[in-house]
Structures are given as structure tokens and as C-alpha cells.
């Protein structure tokens, strides 16, 4: 399946009695009912590792675009009304700024590797602390309490998976703990953020800006307030949208399906 | 601004130094200024990090089609996000840096963290330790760099030698899947040749922080292409950089006026 379609529900599973395996594209499985699939004896696979570098790259792209006001700048550069470029039009630097990574799995760690080269100070919050060598390699400091990370970060990047625990992880309280000069970047899932609270926070300048590759739903309704705010960049869930990675995803999915149909151990099986 | 011409210099007989903010001095007639006994200083240190950052920002934005993506995400006509809408990879791609001075080197440091394969072309080869630190391979001939790179980034200063360095021939040598990024000066590229190359898909795309002139005339063909990102010369447009440039320029000018060693004399 690609991009959450078709919807895997009771009706569909009943109509496909010979279904052996569902191969889902990407790493997220929040759109699937695992116990339902299991009860029908249907196996499940995803494509966890191939998406990591592209998603980390996009996280960096969003952070850079937001801090340097790239989209606004582009609009100014091409606007029919532009007569000159104002000298006092400024963005913010990444070098020396603090990045707080919420969710230090494969993707979060790759973001840290990249951010280190920009001389950013890196904090992270995770269910488990990474080992010392992993931390030193990227200069990342563990924040056991997410509040500590939120207080200190100039950029907060969400790279958790969506579970019952991470649903609306970032709400009104968390946004208020962030610096008023901070930017929120979301490359995880829309539902990790309380979107209404985010709209309010951006509107009232509780935080400076947001850059979202994911929302809930996708796309947002065309009259949604997030689309009207000046201090938001939204991209259409393109974290893994490159030619090479999509090809690798397809290859992974095909391998998983072949194994599932022939009774061999399934690569990237989700248990 | 102000434009430094003969008239201005004649009207300021006591002028000792022109403290330029930024590193580029291509807009100054150095010979004429020198004839008036006036020194020129620039601010190379303040500009390096933010300019390298903008180079990376443009490369990532272009590769991942970020501006187009934003337009789709907010367009009133968007009903769904197409699954087959794709960009190109940055991680593990080949970056060719033309001009490996302070800024070029900082770009290399950043690109290395993306596991990019880094080629560079420069008047002089860097030391082995410097090359190894960023995993950069020297291309004595620019043609070799152009033929192998997925991303070509221009980080030279503008001089008679680098004027129109990238023209029809150079664009023709690049891969049809390649992206040209310019964070140096508009004059380094033959703009008409670039328009043609982009229209005919000789190269995939371009991302320019600099053009000639700035801004471009509103009817310029570059503004109409959909495989180009242009930003309004914001390489040093950060709160921090502006302050550092002012501090660096003042330190330079005070050194001249006090007869002390000048940190960044041109």
C-alpha cells in the first residue's frame, strides 16, 4: 500500500480471504490496526531504514528554509512589485544555535549528524538515552525531561513515531515552554502536535515560526488557519520523496511480499 | 552604496579608509581608490558561516523542490498530495565546489555531514590535511568537476578571470540531472546561457542567491522559469552576521586610523 491507501479495515480484510501480507510504504504504521491484521492472520511489513536519510535531509531543509526565510525571500525576488532588496531584511543563523531533537531514533540521529556540521548545540529527548559513544559522536546532550529541551532550544525538531504516548505530545503547555524566538519543525506525524494549540501559539507569537512536512489531515482543509499564517512553512509530506529512495522502498516492499507469499522470513516485518 | 567614484573621492580629501561590509569588492575600482591613497578593508570572517548556510539551504530547497512543495501545500486548488511527486537526493550525491576559499571550505564541512562526495576546483590546491578533513577531491580541470557533479556550487569571488566563468560550454558539460547553485556573484554566470540551459533542460535546475543586476528586471526570463529558485542576496542577512560585519568593519577602520596592523585590508 502507498500513502495510507487503501484503508485496511474489517470489510476489506473479509473480502480478501487469501490475503497473506500487507506491505506498507515508509516507516510509519500509525495508520494500521495491528491487532486487526493479526486476527486475520495477515502479516505486515514496512520500509524503516531507507527513508531515514531523505527524511533527515528534509528536516535540515525545513530548518534552513525557515531560519533564513527562504520562501518569503523567493517571493520577494520574483514579485512583480519588487523594486529593490531592502538591506534590513534579516533571518537568523544556525551556527551556534541550539537544536532540540525530540525522538532520537534513526532519523533523529541522522539529523544530529547533519546539524553538528553547522556548529549547532544539540539536545535530545528520547524514551531511552543513547550510549556514550553515540552521544559524543554528534555532541548530543540528553534531556531526560522534555521541558528542559523545550526551554533551551532555538529549534525543536520532532522525529518520534506516532503512538498513543506521542499523540499531541506538543500542546499548549509545551509550546509555552519554548522560547518566543524558537521554531518548531515537524517531520514525524501531524498528530504529534496539537494543531489548534499550534495555530494559537503562532498567532500570538508564543513561538516564532513552524515548518511542517506533516499535518493532520493531509492535505489540510483549504480554509485551515495554518495556511493563512505568515510564520509557517508547510510541505506536502515529502520526507521520502526522492527517486532513489522511492525505488528502494519499492524493492523492499517487493522483497517482503515475495517472502510473505513463499513462507520465508519476512524482511522488515512489523510484529 | 554610496557609489565610490572620482567625484566622491575628490570631495573627501581627508578620507583614509573605506570599510566595506561583506567580502566582495568587485563593485569597487581598487586602482582608482588606491591612487587617492585611500585604503579598502572588507569583512571576510563575518560572512563565511551564514553564506555557507545559504548555499546548503539553496541546495536542499532545490533538490527537494521545497518552494514548489510549499505552493502545493497551501494552494486553494490542492485536493490531495500526489504520490509520484519527487525530488532528488542530497545524501551521497556528488557536490562540486568551484572556489574553495573560506566559504567554499565551510560548505564542504557541512556537505560532508550529508555523506556527499565532494569535488573542488580552485586556483590553488588545498593542503592534504584540509582535503582529508572534509573528504574533498581536487579537480585541476573544472571540466572534470562539471561532468561528475550532481550539484555545482559557485563560491568564487568576482574578478576578470571569473567573469562569466559558467557559460554555454560549462553548462553543456554538466549532467542533465545536475543543479547549479550560485552564492558568489551574478556576473560569474552568463545569465543568457543559463536561461537557455534551463529552458532546454540542459541542466535540471538552478538556485541563485545572486544575479546581475539585483533585483532582476521584472520581465526577465529567469523569473518565469519553474526550475529555478532565486533569493534576494541574503547570504549574510542574519541578525548575527550584520552585527559581526559592523564590528569587523569598525575594527578595520580604527586600525587604519590608528596606524595599527589592519586585519582585513584588500
Automatic annotation (TrEMBL), chain A:
GO terms for molecular function: glyoxylate reductase (NADPH) activity; hydroxypyruvate reductase [NAD(P)H] activity; NAD binding. InterPro entries: D-isomer_2-hydroxyacid_DH, D-isomer_2_OHA_DH_cat_dom, D-isomer_DH_NAD-bd, NAD(P)-bd_dom_sf. Pfam families: 2-Hacid_dh, 2-Hacid_dh_C. Residues 60-239 form the D-isomer specific 2-hydroxyacid dehydrogenase NAD-binding domain. Keywords: Oxidoreductase. Residues 3-270 form the D-isomer specific 2-hydroxyacid dehydrogenase catalytic domain. One of its GO terms (cellular component) is cytosol. Belongs to the D-isomer specific 2-hydroxyacid dehydrogenase family. This is Glyoxylate reductase/hydroxypyruvate reductase. It comes from Charadrius vociferus (Killdeer).
UniProtKB/TrEMBL annotation, chain B:
The keyword Oxidoreductase applies. Transmembrane segments: none annotated. Keywords: Oxidoreductase. Residues 56-235 form the D-isomer specific 2-hydroxyacid dehydrogenase NAD-binding domain. One of its GO terms (cellular component) is cytosol. Residues 3-266 form the D-isomer specific 2-hydroxyacid dehydrogenase catalytic domain. One of its GO terms (molecular function) is glyoxylate reductase (NADPH) activity. CDD domains: GDH. Pfam families: 2-Hacid_dh, 2-Hacid_dh_C. Belongs to the D-isomer specific 2-hydroxyacid dehydrogenase family. This is Glyoxylate reductase/hydroxypyruvate reductase. The lineage of its organism: Eukaryota, Metazoa, Chordata, Craniata, Vertebrata.
Amino acid at each position: 500500500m502507498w500513502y495510507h491507501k487503501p484503508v485496511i479495515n474489517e470489510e476489506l480484510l473479509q473480502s480478501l480471504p487469501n490475503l497473506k501480507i500487507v506491505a506498507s510504504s515508509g516507516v510509519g504504521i500509525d495508520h494500521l490496526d495491528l491487532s486487526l491484521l493479526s486476527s486475520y492472520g495477515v502479516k505486515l511489513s514496512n520500509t524503516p531504514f531507507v527513508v531515514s536519510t531523505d527524511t533527515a535531509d528534509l528536516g535540515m531543509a525545513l530548518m534552513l528554509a525557515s531560519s533564513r526565510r527562504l520562501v518569503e525571500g523567493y517571493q520577494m525576488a520574483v514579485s512583480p512589485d519588487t523594486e529593490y532588496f531592502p538591506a534590513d531584511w534579516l533571518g537568523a543563523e544556525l551556527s551556534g544555535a541550539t537544536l532540540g531533537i525530540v525522538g532520537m531514533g534513526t532519523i533523529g540521529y541522522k539529523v544530529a549528524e547533519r546539524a553538528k556540521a553547522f556548529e549547532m548545540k544539540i539536545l535530545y529527548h528520547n524514551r531511552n538515552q543513547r550510549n556514550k559513544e553515540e552521544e559524543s559522536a554528534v555532541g548530543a546532550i540528553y534531556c531526560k525531561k522534555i521541558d528542559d529541551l523545550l526551554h533551551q532550544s532555538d529549534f525543536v525538531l520532532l522525529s518520534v513515531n506516532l503512538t498513543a504516548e506521542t499523540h499531541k505530545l506538543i500542546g499548549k503547555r509545551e509550546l509555552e515552554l519554548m522560547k518566543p524566538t524558537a521554531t518548531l519543525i515537524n517531520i514525524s506525524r501531524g498528530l504529534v502536535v496539537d494543531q489548534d494549540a499550534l495555530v494559537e501559539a503562532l498567532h500570538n507569537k508564543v513561538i516564532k515560526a513552524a515548518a511542517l512536512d506533516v499535518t493532520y489531515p493531509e492535505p489540510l482543509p483549504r480554509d485551515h488557519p495554518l495556511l493563512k499564517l505568515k510564520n509557517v512553512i508547510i510541505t506536502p509530506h515529502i520526507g521520502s520523496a526522492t527517486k532513489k529512495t522511492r525505488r528502494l522502498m519499492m524493492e523492499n516492499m517487493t522483497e517482503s511480499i515475495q517472502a510473505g507469499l513463499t513462507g520465508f522470513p519476512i524482511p522488515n516485518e512489523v510484529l | 552604496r554610496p557609489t565610490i567614484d572620482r567625484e566622491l573621492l575628490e570631495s573627501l580629501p581627508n578620507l583614509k579608509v573605506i570599510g566595506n561590509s561583506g567580502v566582495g569588492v568587485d563593485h569597487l575600482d581598487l586602482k582608482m581608490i588606491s591612487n587617492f591613497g585611500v585604503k579598502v578593508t572588507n569583512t571576510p570572517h563575518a560572512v563565511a558561516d551564514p553564506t555557507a548556510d545559504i548555499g546548503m539551504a539553496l541546495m536542499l530547497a532545490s533538490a527537494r523542490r521545497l518552494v514548489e512543495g510549499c505552493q502545493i501545500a497551501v494552494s486553494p486548488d490542492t485536493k490531495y498530495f500526489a504520490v509520484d511527486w519527487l525530488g532528488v537526493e542530497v545524501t551521497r550525491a556528488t557536490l562540486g565546489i568551484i572556489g574553495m576559499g573560506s566559504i567554499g571550505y565551510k560548505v564542504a564541512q557541512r556537505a560532508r555531514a550529508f555523506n556527499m562526495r565532494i569535488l573542488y576546483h580552485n586556483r590553488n590546491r588545498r593542503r592534504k590535511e584540509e582535503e582529508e578533513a572534509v573528504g574533498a577531491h581536487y579537480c585541476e580541470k573544472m571540466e572534470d568537476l562539471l561532468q561528475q557533479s550532481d550539484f555545482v556550487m559557485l563560491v568564487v569571488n568576482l574578478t576578470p578571470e571569473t567573469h562569466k566563468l559558467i557559460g554555454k560550454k560549462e553548462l553543456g558539460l554538466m549532467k542533465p540531472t545536475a543543479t547549479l547553485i550560485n552564492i558568489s556573484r551574478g556576473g560569474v554566470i552568463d545569465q543568457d546561457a543559463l536561461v537557455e540551459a534551463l529552458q532546454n533542460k540542459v541542466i535540471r535546475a538552478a538556485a541563485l542567491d545572486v544575479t546581475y543586476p539585483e533585483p532582476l528586471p521584472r520581465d526577465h526570463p529567469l523569473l518565469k522559469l519553474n526550475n529555478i529558485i532565486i533569493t534576494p542576496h541574503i547570504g549574510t542577512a542574519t541578525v548575527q552576521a550584520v552585527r559581526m560585519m559592523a564590528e569587523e568593519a569598525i575594527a578595520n577602520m580604527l586600525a587604519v586610523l590608528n596606524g595599527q596592523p589592519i586585519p582585513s585590508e584588500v
